[in-house]
Amino acid sequence: MAHILTAFFFITIFQTLTVLSTAHSYGDAHTCRSYCGNLTVDYPFAIQSGCGHAGYRDLLFCINGVLMLHISSGSYRVLDIDYAYESLTLDDPHMSTCSAIVFGKRGNGFVVEHWREQYLSPTVDNVFMLLGCTAESPLFQGFPGKHLPCRNVSGMGCEEYYGCPGWNIVGTKKVGLVYGSGPPDCCAVSFEAIKAINLTKLGCQGYSSAYSLAPLRVDGPHGWSYGIRVKYSVEGGDSFCKACEATRGACGYDINDFSSLCMCGSWNSTSNCDSVHSSASHRRTWSLMDALTGFMGCIAVWKLSATLGL
To answer: Where would I find the Wall-associated receptor kinase galacturonan-binding domain in this sequence (predicted)?
Structure first.
């Protein structure tokens, strides 16, 4: 009898400690943090459903160790995520660079879904150089009387780009603003000027994209950084996520209505992990009470057996 009571005594203690540990355990802010190749994928991004910010859902995919971003205009390789400056650097394999000019409308351009526009947009220092556009392109409608959007962006433009060796193969047709023999082969624009780089709608054969990282200045197109530099932002800031992570929660969203959630291990909160979910709190409270009741009962039985000499 004494051996049975001893075993029951230790089992009850173990169960009590387990419940206490569970009742005070939270989630982990790193639960949703992922890695793809050498890139860290963290809030507001994620490659797991329900993690990160809902505005960036179904956006990033890790394919054979390569992080890809997918939007309506196509897929792009993610070269870098700068969390300090809230920016992404993307690569379009069919985009022209200084060494190679690509025609044939093979480039993706850059067009985001309307609902994503508040979250993703190329940076103001990103210049798009549209190549081989027709005279009927929306860029040139109304010329020569209408002011054209073609201009330098952050000191980068077509006049310098024409000096790239890639043009030695295809040749150039550099003409002035008043066209006598058709539009130029290159028209540099900012993303804000036209809101979308859709080669088909713009009637262009290709494009290049370059950006500068202030305050560094480089000499000529050979030193430009080629790629698409995209600014990202979270509407209303990230105060919810900061409060969540401060209580060791992981920032996520409800996959049904896309509302923000703080994931706290075995339960979710609409605020943070210090604000205990009512049903989870009730369940844990009663589990703890049951364990304590059993523990006290065990002590009583133990004392009674000792008194009776069992």
So the answer is: 32-91
